[in-house]
Amino acid sequence: LLVLVLVVSLLSNLLVLLCFVYSTEIRKQVAGVFLVNLSFCNLLLTVLNMPFTLLGILRNQQPLGGCVCKAVGFLETFLTSNTMLSMAAYTSKMRYKDAVILMGYSWLHSLTFPLVSLFYSWVDYSSVYASCTLHLKEETERRRFTVFTIVFHSTSFMLSLVILCFTYLKVLKVARFHCKRIDIITMQTLVLLVDIHP
């Protein structure tokens, strides 16, 4: 199943990047900045993280050396956070300058957490996830790691979820308004047809 996800992710993200390269329409849109960033992050996750996870599952142990594991864990934390923030930013309309600023913030925000986790040595192989990821080794660090995890997930994933929910609630509100208008127009048309018919 993981191999299938890897192949589909690789192909779909490459197709998105190819569409961006060959379509001037997509490149003209501000949302294209976030789309490319999203696909690029997903592509890197697919190429760098998924194979190591697959090796971890197959071998039932850390796939490669400690330095490589830390690099993969760093990238996984950075790229997943960046992906979530890009998805949240993709839903809003803005000028190109604002999109570049928001993208810069997304990268800075996403780099902060893996750097902190490297500083505290919280990136390591986790047998639970069969991958190199955020992992608490020593119980003495439990409180600090818990605070870090809460802040990381709140500012990266919960923030993105709230923004996406708010945006799609606005879309739903507009869709309902249009449905009501369509229903009124349909009813008026039916009344006219009934009145015209002898």
UniProtKB/TrEMBL annotation:
It is a multi-pass membrane protein. GO terms for molecular function: G protein-coupled receptor activity. The keyword Metal-binding does not apply. SUPFAM superfamilies: Family A G protein-coupled receptor-like. Keywords: Cell membrane, G-protein coupled receptor, Membrane, Receptor, Transducer, Transmembrane, Transmembrane helix. The chain crosses the membrane at residues 6-23, 30-52, 102-123, 145-171. Pfam families: 7tm_1. GO terms for cellular component: plasma membrane. Residues 12-198 form the G-protein coupled receptors family 1 profile domain. GO terms for biological process: adenylate cyclase-activating G protein-coupled receptor signaling pathway. It is found in: Cell membrane. It comes from the Eukaryota. PANTHER family: G-PROTEIN COUPLED RECEPTOR (PTHR24245), G-PROTEIN COUPLED RECEPTOR 78 (PTHR24245:SF7). This is G-protein coupled receptor 26.
